[in-house]
Amino acid sequence: GGGCVTREENYDLLHQNGVIVRLTRSLDKLPLSGRPVSQALGPEEIYRRRKPLYERFADVTAGNDGPIEETVQNLLEVLA
Questions:
Q1: Pairwise CA distance, residues 41 & 55, whole Å
Q2: Helix-, strand-, coil-residue percentages of the chain, each rounded to 5
């Protein structure tokens, strides 16, 4: 989950076997239902706290605001 970046020991574990992709999405498009941390703190605060961690953990970043086909194309481009 998104919180895995909050534990430094996860960095090496995540990078052992693959490429870490950071998918970006507008906060207003994120579902909050069933996500207690998101409901308690709000997505803006969580993102403010975790953004530097997401950026540090990621090998590549791709946008995920449009249709699935567009997201797949973004992924193919950043992984090429």
A1: 21
A2: 60, 10, 30
Reported as a single tens digit per residue, the pLDDT across 50-79 is 999 999 999 999 999 999 999 999 999 999
What pTM does this model have?
A: 0.79
| 60 secondary structure, DSSP code | E
Structural tokens at position 6: 């909050």
Strand partners, 62: 23
60 neighbors 16 (Cβ within 8 angstroms): no
Tokens 């941390």: give the residue: 37
H helical segments located in 1-80: 10-15, 36-41, 43-57, 68-79
Q: Check: CB of residue 54 under 8 Å from CB of residue 37.
A: no
